Amino acid sequence: MRSSPLLIMGFLAVALACHARSLPTESLEITTASGPHRFAVEIAATAAARERGLMFRRRLAANRGMLFEFGPPQQVSFWMKNTLIPLDMLFVDSGRIVAIARNATPLSETPIPSGAPVTDVIELRGGRAAEIGAAPGDRVRELSARGR
What we know:
alpha+beta; Jelly Rolls; two-stranded antiparallel sheet; 3 helices; 9 strands
């Protein structure tokens, strides 16, 4: 029996949606010159979750994002392969933003390096960092404990 391509694509879409909902979430706050801004972020703590990231998403709410955790500070690089929406990437070390890649181009395979060792990367909807006035040196703190 042959499966139709449409059926297979539907299954993949459902699987990806289920995966997105299965990631733990956390509240975090980014404090900029304009004040504190709260976000609910999905946690990409495993290699598989970090590899998938926000691929195939068609939208991202203004108060949502994804947090990539790397442990000890290290240089990291991201790309936008299979990512359908522009994203802002906030590179974070010791609770402070060290660099921001703004409005990363959807579907691009061009590497986006952190430029410095980081422990975390936060992805937000493209343009959101500018909307809240985020800049290097701004503080990031977790508001909900997950037992890390």
